[in-house]
Amino acid sequence: MSDSAYFKRTIVKHDVSSSILPTGTRSLRVYLPPGFNEILSYPVVYCQDGEDFFNFGRIATIANKLILDGEIEPIIIAGVDVDKKVRTEEYSPDGALFETYTRSFTEEIVPFIEATYPVRTDWNDIVLAGDSLGGTVSLHLALKQPEKFKQVISLSGAFYSASYDILAAQPDFSWLRIFMIVGLQETAYETDRGVFDFLQINRDTHQLLSERSARVHYEEHDGQHLWGFWQKHIPDALKYYFEV
């Protein structure tokens, strides 16, 4: 396969109307696999930080290559953009806009994708993906609708105390399947909420989920809290769920 074929991607942008979000709309970008056919159906990955996943994570190019090389089945990827100024408020469970955003995601954004594209709606064909706080909100969305969202990709998840306490209150995670990575150099990362040891945060969350019967694929690698690190592991994350 020539390199040029990998870069022939189909990405469609949408502005979804919302009666829940204060802005009234939310921008999405949707990757369609090679040979996309509307009469077929496809698994779907919903990415938080959609713009970053596509631009810095290069998830569309990565998926294209994996599909064309026969390593994963064809999938659709829906990236949900976020305004960085309110990202923490939307993604953190103690944020002022968390309930608003998560309601819009489940009641407006996912239904829009399901009405517009031939995505499968069974839980084993749906994955929620996110980096840092995007990983956090992905797991909390799964908690809100565990009958539908059981599969999560968390890249250096920001499981701060408010999030960890919610997870700790759950007695059973046997329904959850989660792919987690974290960087060994993420021990003192500065955020808008202070400096955090993401390595320890993820170790603690991994232990909590495992003790409560979640199926956890957990890895630690050399890397910092950056897209340059996360991008390297997106192929493994996609293969974990969609390998042929």
From TrEMBL:
Lineage top rank: taxon: Bacteria
Cross-referenced Gene3D superfamilies: alpha/beta hydrolase
The name this protein goes by in its record: Esterase family protein
Organism: Paenibacillus agilis
